[in-house]
Specification:
Layout: E1 7-12, H1 19-33, E2 41-46, H2 52-58, E3 65-68, H3 85-89, E4 95-98, H4 101-105, H5 111-123, E5 127-132, H6 136-140, H7 144-155, H8 161-164, E6 168-171, H9 186-204, H10 206-211, E7 214-217, H11 225-229, E8 236-239, H12 246-261
Helix pairs in contact: 1-2, 1-12, 5-7, 7-9
The structure holds 2-phosphoglycolic acid (PGA).
């Protein structure tokens, strides 16, 4: 079984925490997880745009890396309501989440738009965390692999093998995400991760594809986190609701990291 150098574990706080609430969360999370060390783990948090300045001020980048939930694909221009990569970099952001299921399905972003964002992030040396995943009806129709292939091929069009080394992919089946979501079984998640690795291998070659971290997200909780992280091709976890209280998140990390070390 191939294993990446570092366990990747992170959360996106969606539209839930104000700057003050983010500060409280990050302070606690940093304190609780500092003793775990970072030799073989990267912990990242993706807060709201308006919390980024505060977040960057109070976090130690050696302990918690910061990401943004979205990004416009131009450096500047007549794009009211958008945030450019230059604006993100000003706030110590290293990662940008692209194509989260809510962006695709609530705000109707297309694969072409995600592709422009991926290319823009890479141009600016931001790490793109591209989210992919099929809807419930697509899974029921046996189309999961077809959907994943399309999201990867279109979303990563024009990315060179060299640039692909900085990519991260989150597999987040739409039916598994959020309130009412049903977590993917560990077997199903691992099967889809293997398929994603196969598509990445076709696109970028085996060595590059093997080094791209694949994170699972969608109703990860304290019960299923340990079994998910032990599966083949699952290199990290991307957690929503179960991570939004610092003590709960720290507990999950504390359970998962030793398992990862022995994987
Ligand atoms: P959830 O969210 O863990 O609350 O299902 C996952 C996500 O949207 O990334």
């Amino acid at each position: 079984m191939m294993k990446q150098d570092k366990l990747l574990i992170g959360t996106n706080t969606k539209m839930y925490k104000t700057a003050a609430q983010t500060a409280q969360f990050l302070t606690g999370l940093q304190q609780l997880t500092a003793p775990l060390g970072r030799e073989d783990m990267e912990l990242f948090v993706i807060p709201s745009y308006t919390a980024l300045e505060t977040a960057a001020r109070i976090t130690d980048p050696g302990l918690i890396r910061l990401g943004a939930q979205n990004m416009g694909w131009e450096d500047e221009g007549q794009f009211s309501g958008e945030i450019s990569p230059l604006m993100l970099k000003e706030h110590g952001v290293s990662t940008v989440m692209i194509g989260h299921s809510e962006r695709r399905h609530v705000f109707l972003e297309t694969d072409e738009m995600e592709n422009k964002k991926v290319l823009c992030a890479l141009r600016h040396k931001l790490i793109p965390l591209l989210c992919v995943g099929e809807k419930g009806e697509e899974k029921a129709a046996g189309k999961s692999e077809e959907v994943l292939r399309r999201q990867l091929e279109k979303g990563l069009e024009g990315v060179t093998a060299e640039a692909a080394a900085c990519l991260r992919i989150a597999y987040e089946p739409v039916w598994a995400i959020g309130v009412g979501g049903v977590p993917a079984s560990k077997e199903y998640a691992s099967q889809m991760h293997s398929f994603i690795r196969q598509v990445l291998t076709e696109l970028f070659g085996m060595d590059t594809a093997a080094a791209i971290p694949l994170l699972y997200g969608g109703s990860v909780n304290p019960e299923n986190a340990p079994e998910l992280i032990l599966m083949d091709n699952i290199d990290g976890l991307f957690i929503g609701r179960s991570a939004w209280q610092e003590d709960n998140f720290a507990k999950i990390i504390g359970t998962v990291l030793p398992l990862w070390r022995n994987k």
